[in-house]
Design a protein that fits this description.
The chain is an alpha/beta fold and 322 residues long. It has a domain at 2-164 and 194-218: Rossmann fold, CATH 3.40.50.720. 39% of the residues lie in helices and 18% in strands. It has twelve helices and 13 strands. It has a seven-stranded parallel β-sheet with strand order 5-4-3-6-7-8-11, with helices on both faces. It is globular. It binds NADP nicotinamide-adenine-dinucleotide phosphate (NAP). NADP nicotinamide-adenine-dinucleotide phosphate binds next to helix 1 and strand 4.
């Protein structure tokens, strides 16, 4: 049994008060140390809802998140027995499958383990444009796994986000040292989304039955191209930062020299190139409907994640990424 802090309307006074109730939800986050899993845990912590986090290495997870007050469970999507043991007593799972050559197999292992257990709801992270004929390997894999989940008989929520604003933080070394960043996305616009909103949407999808057996396209409230993103960063940092589009090949070389396996470097540069398609500039209102508020804008993200120049007084950060 999990405990949830809920807002309750007092019928006599008409006022709300907070009460802790026992719930039958027992939540496991798979991908708990990654971008979206940790953003979801941050939101569960705000709601006072306990969750368990699967990781392949508890010591490493504790080192990365020393202040997390969650139960870590050691296991791997590659190891069916560890999965079966990790999901004993679990009723709801959030899963972000890592980008690897065998990502379809990894998700299938989870479905096998879940179908032999009392898990009744799986929230799966997919990707915007996950279609079986996609020219992106990653999106094709997501499309296969999404369909397997739909066919499994387990209740599902499939979240298909566009790229995260926070991906640009991976370019920080370039931005700081050289004053520019490069991506193979030409001049195309994308309706990028904030990871903090994705984390909150995951938590809401787990808690509320309203989002079951549905697929959601998760985007930010506006489409922006990377020249405009560079402009916003420049204004915030008080110095000129530019975006220099590069080729898919150059991006692959850079990812490979950063140590990524060949399949990953190929698949990531491919999907970045694929984002030039018009569908990735579309704005959907699924996210604001789930959150019941406006999704974060590019300007919100830049304000919170890029600091003011040292000679100006920094503003306090509103919220951290994860
Ligand atoms: N980046 C984007 O803009 C974007 C947008 C839309 C969708 N996506 C999708 O997001 C997914 C990745 O999610 P993310 O960005 O939240 O994660 P992430 O930051 O890439 O981190 C990967 C997570 O997977 C865990 N992991 C790796 N191998 C594992 C295994 N064998 N068994 C169990 N856990 C394993 C890692 O945990 P430990 O190391 O602790 O075990 C870590 O928590 C991908 O499917 C991608 O297609 C990404």
């Amino acid at each position: 049994m999990g405990k949830i802090l809920v807002k309750q309307l007092h019928l006599l006074t008409g006022k709300f008060d907070m009460k802790t109730i026992e719930t039958p939800i027992n939540i496991l986050i798979i991908g708990s140390t990654g971008n979206t899993g940790s953003a979801a845990i941050t939101h569960f912590e705000k709601l006072n809802i306990p969750v368990k986090g699967l990781t392949r290495n508890i010591a490493k997870a504790q080192k990365k998140y020393p202040n997390r007050n969650i139960e870590w469970i050691e296991g791997s999507l590659n190891d069916l027995e560890s999965l079966k043991s990790a999901i004993k007593g679990i009723t709801s799972i959030y899963v972000a499958v890592p980008v690897t050559e065998n990502m379809v197999q990894l998700f299938n292992n989870l479905l096998v383990a879940a179908s032999e257990s009392q898990v009744d709801h799986v929230v799966k992270l997919s990707g915007l444009g996950a279609e079986k004929n996609s020219t992106s390997k990653i999106l094709k894999c997501h499309s296969i796994s999404d369909q397997q989940l739909i066919n499994s008989g387990i209740e599902y929520t499939i979240l298909r986000p566009n790229s995260f604003f926070q991906n640009i933080l991976l370019e920080n070394t370039y931005i700081n040292r050289r004053g520019y960043f490069s991506l193979p996305m030409a001049d195309s616009s994308q309706s990028l989304v904030d990871l903090r909103d994705v984390g909150e949407a995951i938590a809401k999808a787990i808690i509320s039955p309203r989002f079951r057996n549905k697929i959601f396209n998760i985007t930010g409230p506006t489409a922006i191209n990377y020249h405009e993103m560079a402009g916003l960063i420049s204004d915030r940092l008080g110095k000129e930062i530019t975006y220099k589009p590069c080729s898919q090949d150059d991006s692959k070389k850079r990812l490979s020299s950063a140590g990524l396996p060949n399949w990953n470097a190929d698949a990531l540069s491919e999907i970045q190139h694929h984002f030039q398609e018009e569908q990735f500039s579309k704005v959907f209102d699924d996210l604001s409907n789930i959150l019941e508020k406006k999704a974060k804008t590019p300007a919100d993200f830049i304000l919170d994640f890029f600091s003011l120049p040292k000679n100006l007084k920094p503003e306090p950060k509103r919220e951290s990424a994860a």
